[in-house]
């Protein structure tokens, strides 16, 4: 249990370094004189760094001692966070966030290491605990960041992250067993294997769903602080951060999606959750805090339900290459998150929160279209067979 807690803490703090800016964007913009239309790039910078890390750093986990690799990446993430905390110019802040995002892919290495250290009987519980750390880091960071920024300003958020990351690096080295490697696989071979996965229909379809899914997710969380800080609500950064608790409740409620997927309903869960995602934007776009909170709750539930279902299908299809297939899938996730973060503030500057809500709903509609098209193709390919090739009992209601 102590080992699971350390792994979950590593994931929570590392992923928080990417999302901590979201509730304090207005404060950062005021301090560094960044216009509203450009604030989205502050969040997108970390996502773009994360994208690069997924492609070039995650494969290292198959080649070197993961205990040392995790500690090194935590320290380098801390350097990025410290650079962001000290930034007096926008370009320096962006450089720090890109660096932090690049090495925040330590999350993926940690997940793989946790799975490797677990017995088959406990692997599911271990991965569940580690994944909960990721969810807590993404959504809980908003609450903590809002509270810290209210007391000591937005720079204190990144300073606190840097301190926590350094402490966790030492804890990993002290408490985790060595992870020696004796294989002869080269870095080039691992990258080639990862590249081959992008030609497979299952990864492409689930990846595109994730792309639009997290673009919609990013459109909400990267733009939400702007209307909440403005008239008529004028909420403080601490109050804005509390919306993370609403999102956290919704996301953790989606944990049951994994059980539904185990019973062969991953595709139905995906389709239903994508409908909920689109509908949630009707509440999010209303001029009522209660409706907005309800919309956030439903939206985060839908996003995590789809995310869990996607990963279930991919790992079931590639049980011998789970790290590679999840790494490839997360590239789509990172691209979508960066897109949503970058364009939602532009839409807000042009058409207010209504514009951002329409954008988020459009992304949800695109994700549903990809899911429906992919499931119809799977139904046609599996026509005449007893078991669909996608591994689903009920692919889609298409003819």
TrEMBL record:
Its main location: membrane. It is found in: Cell membrane. The chain crosses the membrane at residues 39-58, 70-87, 93-115, 127-149, 155-173, 203-221, 233-254, 266-284, 290-309, 330-351, 357-374. Residues 1-26 form the signal peptide. Residues 1-377 form the Major facilitator superfamily (MFS) profile domain. It is a multi-pass membrane protein. Keywords: Membrane, Signal, Transmembrane, Transmembrane helix. SUPFAM superfamilies: MFS general substrate transporter. This is MFS transporter. It comes from Amycolatopsis silviterrae.
């Amino acid at each position: 249990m102590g080992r699971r807690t350390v792994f979950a803490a590593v994931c929570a703090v590392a992923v928080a370094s990417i999302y901590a800016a979201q509730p304090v964007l207005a404060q950062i913009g005021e301090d560094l004189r960044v216009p509203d239309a450009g604030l989205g790039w502050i969040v997108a910078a970390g996502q773009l760094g994360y994208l690069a890390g997924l492609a070039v750093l995650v494969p290292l986990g198959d080649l070197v001692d993961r205990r040392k690799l995790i500690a090194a990446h935590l320290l380098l993430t801390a350097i990025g966070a410290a650079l962001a905390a000290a930034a007096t110019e926008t370009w320096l802040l962006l450089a720090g966030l890109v660096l932090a995002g690049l090495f925040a892919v330590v999350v993926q290495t940690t997940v793989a290491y946790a799975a490797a250290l677990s017995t088959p009987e406990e692997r599911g519980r271990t991965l569940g605990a580690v994944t909960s750390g990721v969810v807590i880091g993404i959504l809980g960071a908003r609450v903590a960041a809002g509270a810290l920024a209210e007391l000591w300003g937005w720079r204190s958020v990144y300073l606190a992250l840097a301190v926590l990351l350094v402490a966790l690096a030492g804890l990993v080295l002290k408490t985790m067993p060595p992870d020696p490697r004796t294989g002869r696989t080269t870095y080039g071979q691992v990258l080639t294997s990862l590249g081959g996965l992008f030609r497979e229909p299952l990864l492409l379809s689930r990846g595109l769903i994730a792309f639009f899914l997290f673009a919609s997710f990013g459109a909400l969380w990267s733009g939400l602080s702007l209307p909440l800080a403005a008239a008529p609500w004028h909420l403080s950064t601490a109050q804005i951060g509390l919306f993370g608790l609403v999102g956290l409740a919704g996301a953790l409620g989606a944990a049951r999606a994994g059980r539904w997927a185990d019973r062969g309903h991953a595709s139905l869960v995906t389709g239903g959750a994508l409908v909920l995602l689109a509908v949630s934007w009707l509440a999010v776009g209303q001029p009522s805090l209660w409706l907005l909170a309800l919309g956030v709750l439903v939206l985060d539930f839908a996003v995590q339900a789809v995310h869990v279902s996607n990963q279930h299908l991919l790992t079931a299809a590639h049980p011998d290459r789970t790290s590679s297939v999840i790494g490839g899938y997360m590239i789509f996730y990172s691209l979508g998150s960066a897109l949503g973060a970058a364009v939602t503030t532009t839409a807000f500057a042009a058409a207010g929160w209504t514009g951002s809500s329409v954008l988020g709903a459009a992304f949800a509609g695109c994700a549903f279209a990809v899911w429906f098209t992919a499931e119809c193709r799977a139904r046609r390919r599996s026509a005449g067979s007893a078991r669909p090739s996608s591994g689903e009992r009920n692919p889609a209601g298409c003819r």
